[in-house]
Amino acid sequence: MQPPYRSLSRALTVILLLVLAGTVICFICVVAAKPWEPLTEFYLLGPGGRAEGYPSTLKVGEPAEVIAGIVNRQGETVVYEVAVAVRGVSADGWGPVVLGDGERAERVLTFTPQGAGGQKVEFFLYRQGEDMPYRSLYLPVNVRE
């Protein structure tokens, strides 16, 4: 005759294994059922190619550079354009950029603030044929005389 705790231990082990198997099955179903959402990555990097060292304090008329990047995850080839504006005035641009699904492109973009004070440098990503930006980013910049 087995002690009662062995039967209880076996029963709890079986229950634990069933719960674990059910959890794995539920996880697989959730991941498999989640619809794939097409997207485009649009990012800025500092001059060193890292997410740091962005220009933040400049002198009037001093040019500054950032690296803009685009990664196409739309599931098809897309044509993009990038526009840069300082205080709403066009500063630089890039495009057309043709990227197949999964392809990436980076380019150095330059802007030169013309007035003193706090400014917003805006970066707009457009998809071909669209008038409104698909994505936008900005850098706050303090400009001294």
Characterize the structure shown.
The N and C termini lie far apart (93 Å). The strands form 2 sheets. Strands 2-8-7-4-5 form a 5-stranded mixed beta sheet, with no helix packed on it. It has a 3-stranded antiparallel beta sheet with strand order 1-3-6, with no helix packed on it. The longest helix has 30 residues, at 4-33. It is built from 1 helix and 8 strands, in the order H-E-E-E-E-E-E-E-E. By secondary structure, it is an alpha+beta fold. The mean pLDDT is 89. Strand 7 and strand 8 (135-144) form a beta hairpin. The protein has one helix at residues 4-33, and strands at residues 39-45, 57-59, 64-73, 78-86, 89-99, 104-111, 117-127, 135-144.
Mean pLDDT: 89
Number of helices: 1
Tell me the β content: over 45%
Content-based structural category: alpha+beta
Tell me the number of strands. 8
Major pleated sheet = 5 strands, mixed
Q: Rg from C-alpha positions?
A: 26 Å
Descriptive terms for the model:
145 residues, alpha+beta, five-stranded mixed β-sheet, 1 helix, 8 strands
List the helices and strands and how they pair.
Elements: H1 4-33, E1 39-45, E2 57-59, E3 64-73, E4 78-86, E5 89-99, E6 104-111, E7 117-127, E8 135-144
Parallel strand pairs: 2-8
Antiparallel strand pairs: 1-3, 3-6, 4-5, 4-7, 7-8
Quick gist of this model?
By secondary structure, the protein is α+β, with helices and mostly antiparallel strands. The chain is built from 1 helix and 8 strands.
